[in-house]
Amino acid sequence: MRTAPTILHLDMDAFFASVEQASKPSLRGKAVIVGGLGPRGVVATCSYEARVFGVHSAMPMAQARRLAPNAAYLVPRFGLYRSISDQVMRLLRALSPLVEPLSLDEAFVDLEAGGAAWDEESALLAGVRLRTDIRAVTGLTGSVGLAASKMLAKIASEQAKPDGLVLIEPGTERALLGPMPVRTLPGVGPATGDHLRRAGITTVEEIAEAGEDELVRLLGKAHGHALYAMALARDDRPVVAERETKSVSVEDTYDVDIHDRIRVALEVQRLADRCVRRLRGAGLSGRTIVLKVRRYDFSTLTRSETLRGPTDDQAVVREAAARLLDSVDTTGGVRLLGVGVSGLADYTQEDLFAQAVGERPEGPAEEEAPESADGATRPVERRWPAGHDVLHTEHGHGWVQGSGLGRVTVRFETPDSVPGRVRTFRTDDPALEPADPLPLVARRPDEAADAEGQDRSSA
Ligand SMILES: [Mg+2]
């Protein structure tokens, strides 16, 4: 194990809820709950003001409504969260090539590998600077943990919450861990916790005292060994930049070789779309786009391109796949094509994500108009998800506070305005239309040009 606290764990504070509060001035300082609002919905994130009522992530939404009936209940806006996550991850990648995202708002960084820190003092400095930079770029707060291992860096950031920094000095780990509940250790869920409690083990120190043999007897070989090592603060797990083994890909084999170059390009586009649907369905995004081509003579080529940040954007994947195809000679015919995305960031809130996606109205490009019995298409009824942005021709930018019974209530405010006024419209009011979220931090013109350049090169 290393001897300097150069592993950093960043965890943004109440991320989704904080984004909503930053973008909606009237919700600052209020209880905000973001999650699936359907009958089986669960809380994805809630603001600290909502936690006071006992609301927490993964709680059924119905229970949250009983505990905090007056909170603001909002449907997640993953596109916005992801774009802010990209900004944060970019700051982390500037510190080190070894950045391991755990979710949209959480990541490990190996500061030593990037030369950003080598001892306690430099690590502390890097952590302090990072928090300042995150605040300047996103307007949000994140908590930082610094330690000599991943386990302790994560424990440190938990202790730092909200809006703080904790550094665990090497050598003090065991004393710190000892009195903590067993659930503090990674891999100890409710079931293992119960199991240990029945054996009279409730703290980390008691795990260490029980000894390795007892742990193995209680929990089995793999789990027992691992837990005993963790209790002694032994954790050598490296920060892993990308999970190369993980990828999502789709391919098609053709009965008859395809010769027509335009047809090949169309097939690649179709495969890219299918791949993105799979990716999104799993709540994933990836950085490396891969094209696979098997030619008439069974020679197989793969070409790949790595973007600056993860994407699940259909247009981005399509374009990358098309560029890759440009570099492949297909004269003579093609018998198999495949498109994949690897270098995936997998999000711990995957289930919440998938659920919320199911409830989210899909964009018009992805949704086919429903067909009635006679095959004619019906107009799609307009939906106004709570919390989503709208634009009114007269009143400007706002967000949906609620809708029902043919009415939609909109609060007109923007991230840098004062708390705005509320107005109610008919759901089919032609003056009202869905809008894109506004940036949380207004950019100066020179910065805007800069960031655009970055976005372009990453796409
Ligand atoms: Mg967080």
From TrEMBL:
InterPro entries: DNA/RNA_pol_sf (IPR043502), DNA_pol_Y-fam_lit_finger_sf (IPR036775), DNA_pol_Y-fam_little_finger (IPR017961), DNA_polymerase-Y (IPR050116), DNApol_IV (IPR022880), Rev_trsase/Diguanyl_cyclase (IPR043128), UmuC (IPR001126). It is found in: Cytoplasm. Its cofactor is Mg(2+). Residues 432-442 have a biased composition (Low complexity). Its EC number is 2.7.7.7. It catalyses: DNA(n) + a 2'-deoxyribonucleoside 5'-triphosphate = DNA(n+1) + diphosphate. Residues 7-189 form the UmuC domain. This is DNA polymerase IV. It comes from Streptomyces cadmiisoli.
